[in-house]
Design brief:
Length: 452
């Protein structure tokens, strides 16, 4: 702050000296006309010395904040070039300077005025870019204040003799503040208590946005990069993240001997904690998936580890299946997750597959094992098995109505002839049409297995 004040005064007096010197050179070569500066009622004011300082400061802040700081910053962000911001803001200021700024030495003829304003604006802009906004404001302030001070300083009336003293005090006051700053060597920093409430709210929103972006990046990095290639089957998966990140998860495991593990899960909660628990779930599941071809055994092992490592208020729902591609059979268990949808070609019907089971991490193991069921079924040609998270079934429109599992089951059944990826896209379009402009509040994850 102290450096900015001193720099501003130095630049201001330098600009004034350049203006006076330039006019003197021009006048010595060829006479030219000048118009008297608008005094803005300063001599007639109750306190002319204060009027000089306050008017100069108000106009300086308006010009520097709006034309230099705002326009240069905004145009630089749009174009990526600081010079474009300097030039465009200087052109705008040149056109409007008659109404926004008073020349400290009077107005030149129009042939000289606009080029002089443009060059002056470029100089002011460079000061702001190279130094800071405070320096630019005090530079502009000194240039204006010295011009407004002319009638006060030139008058010989007794009243103005006192005003000259006040004026000198007011003009020297910022330098006194700078001297105190230099003496104490203090750097002013905002603390939470000093920050205005609306600024704290904006900062909090920015922090939350960064947190959600981290969670989204973690989530996306852990999902499969490509769908598995399985002879005789078409398998596809997708996760569409919401603005408010959850912990949806799906994965494929090559188990050998023509078997593929298929997992889809949903971690309770949102944000970074959900993304962390999702990471934990993936790691534990990967370590146990190859140990057994029984989904029930794998989920039992996963539950024990999750119970030891997550908070009691958190849990993970999961549907885990092992597909035997050679036998065209699939074994599966459901730990508190949404049911799967089986669309059968032979009967032209669909059913919900929902074996019993509670979510992972809620209970140490006794009740979990007692409730968890494992089923096996044979898949026929043309059958489609769809796993999904509640982001699809609980998607709501502006009226608060949910899409629902019945509608989801109907769309899956009607899209059975499509490819696995085509079916997913059909479902996504149907849900988005139903939702309309209502924001998506939960991730939408789906895995489709189609027998070719």
């Amino acid at each position: 702050m102290a450096n900015a004040i001193v720099r501003g005064y130095a630049f201001g007096f330098a600009i004034l000296g350049a203006l006076v010197g330039g006019l003197w050179l021009l006048g010595s070569q060829k006479p030219f006309g000048m118009f008297v500066v608008n005094l803005s009622g300063i001599p007639e004011s109750v306190m002319p010395a204060a009027s000089v300082v306050l008017l100069a400061l108000r106009i300086a802040m308006l010009n520097e904040i709006v034309f230099r700081f705002f326009f240069i910053t905004w145009i630089r962000e749009k174009t990526g070039n600081v010079w474009s911001g300097l030039i465009i803001s200087s052109l705008l200021w040149t056109l409007l300077a008659f109404n926004l700024w008073d020349s400290p030495i009077g107005y030149l003829q129009f042939a000289w005025l606009f080029p002089a304003y443009f060059v002056l604006s470029l100089i002011m802009g460079l000061i702001m870019v190279r130094c800071d906004l405070t320096t630019a404001i005090f530079t502009n302030f000194i240039v204006l204040a010295m011009g407004y001070a002319v009638p006060v300083m030139a008058s010989s009336a007794p009243y103005f003799q006192t005003q000259k003293i006040f004026l000198g005090f007011f003009l020297a006051l910022p330098l006194g503040v700078a001297a105190v700053g230099y003496a104490k060597r203090q750097v002013f920093k905002f603390s939470l208590e000093l920050t205005p409430t609306h600024i704290r709210r904006i900062s909090e929103r920015e922090r939350m946005a960064r947190e959600l972006e981290i969670a989204r990046s973690v989530q996306m990095s852990l999902l499969p990069k490509e769908n598995p290639l399985a002879e005789g089957y078409d398998i596809a998966g997708v996760c569409i993240p919401a603005l408010e990140v959850g912990g949806d998860y799906y994965d494929f495991f090559q188990l050998g001997d023509g078997k593929i593990g298929i997992a889809i899960g949903d971690v309770s909660g949102k944000g970074v904690p959900a993304a962390i628990y999702m990471t934990l779930t993936k790691g534990i599941l990967q370590s146990h998936a190859g140990e057994s071809m029984s989904p029930r055994d794998v989920l039992n092992k996963l539950n024990r580890q999750m119970y030891l490592n997550i908070e009691r208020s958190s849990f993970v729902s999961m549907f885990y299946a092992v597909l035997d591609m050679k036998q065209r059979k699939i074994r599966f268990s459901r730990a508190g997750h949404n049911p799967a949808i089986l669309a059968q070609r032979s009967t032209n019907s669909s059913t919900l597959i929902q074996p019993k089971g509670i979510a992972l991490g809620l209970e140490e193991g006794t009740k979990f094992q007692a409730f968890l069921e494992e089923h096996e079924m044979t898949l026929e040609r043309g059958d489609v098995l769809t796993f999904y998270t509640d982001g699809f079934s609980e998607a709501t429109n502006e009226k608060g109505d949910e899409f629902g599992e019945d509608a989801l089951e109907q769309v899956v059944a009607q899209s059975r002839e499509l490819s696995a990826n085509g079916l997913i896209q059909r479902v996504v379009r149907s849900v988005k049409t139903f939702v309309g402009n209502h924001p998506q509040h939960d991730d939408m994850t789906m895995v489709v297995v189609k027998v070719l």
